[in-house]
Amino acid sequence: MEETAAPEAVCANCAAALAGEYCGQCGQRRFAERDRRFGHLLGQLCEAATDLDGRFWRSLRALMLRPGLIPADYIRGRRACWMSPLSLFLFANVLFFFAPGVSDLTLELEQQVPEPVLREFRTPEQNAARQVHGRQLHNALTAPLARVALTQARDRARRQGQAFDLEVYAAEYHARSDAIGKLLVFVHVPCIALVLQLLAWRSRRYFAEHFVLALTLMAFTMLLVQVVVMPCAYLYLQARTALGLTPELMPDWAKIGLVLVNIGYFSRACWRCYASPAWLALLQGFGAFAALAISSLFVYRGLQLLFTLWSV
């Protein structure tokens, strides 16, 4: 009696014939019955969390300790061993969004909108009280739009038979502005990329390649703030409080040190990506950090104000 041949094993992912443990077409491992069990899922989780040689942890280490290596390899086409710069930025942005608030990230409404505009919407008693006088670089463009948004809010309250209270409105503004501010962090990236393109024009690179470097610079800054700066600042604040000293989140010398660390990291990354001389890499790094600072004061703050006003 003729024996029936065993059915040929095929890949569960692409249906190609399997000749070994892994598929020669797509690379997926042979699917087995044990892969359906919960233990397999837990095993994958433990493997991902403890595999220090995995692509995620390798990329994270390179991002924090080897400035510019990931974007330099990405631009040269060596991409398989790293997470993409966009994925790293999104990872840092998610942590940044869910982490506790960052000092100076959110400003009060009185700090964002100039005093002459606010006086139009306060009661006489509120105007007589001492107020915070805000002046931002974006006021020339945003003050008229802020007046329109506040006027609409006041008219809406009147149509509902209610008195408009700017202090109540400002409290709701502050409650929403932090989350909106964290969502808008990405606006720094094209600003940094544009400055890098101007300072590295001799490299003959596409704007997208400068954008890739800017993504990693912002990812480093966000992770540095959340993983290093904020925990240290919290411990410093608690120590001063325990000693009965004036509460202070970060001394001036620490702020200067943070600026220097960022400029040093940015410069090193530019040296690696553009193969620039040391003096030019320092200029490019300083320019990238200046772009971050200026875009924060002008573009980021203005967008945060307008988006929050229209969301209240």
Describe the structure.
With 312 residues, this protein is mainly α. It is built from 13 helices and no strands. The protein has helices at residues 38-50, 55-65, 69-76, 85-98, 109-112, 115-119, 124-128, 139-159, 166-183, 188-199, 207-242, 252-274, 278-311. Residues 1-7 have low confidence and may be disordered.
Question: How much strand?
Answer: under 5%
Using the CA coordinates, give the radius of gyration: 26 Å
Helix/sheet category: mainly alpha
List the secondary-structure elements in sequence, H or E: HHHHHHHHHHHHH
- Low-pLDDT residue intervals, each spanning 5 or more residues: 1-7
The main pleated sheet reads as: none
- Please count the beta strands (DSSP E, at least 2 residues each): 0
Give the CA-CA distance, first to last residue.
82 Å
Instruction: Provide a count of the helices.
Output: 13
**Shape annotation:** globular
Give the helix proportion (percent range): 55-70%
Please state the average pLDDT score: 83
Fold blueprint:
Elements: H1 38-50, H2 55-65, H3 69-76, H4 85-98, H5 109-112, H6 115-119, H7 124-128, H8 139-159, H9 166-183, H10 188-199, H11 207-242, H12 252-274, H13 278-311
Helix pairs in contact: 3-11, 3-12, 4-11, 8-13, 9-13, 10-11, 10-13, 11-12, 12-13
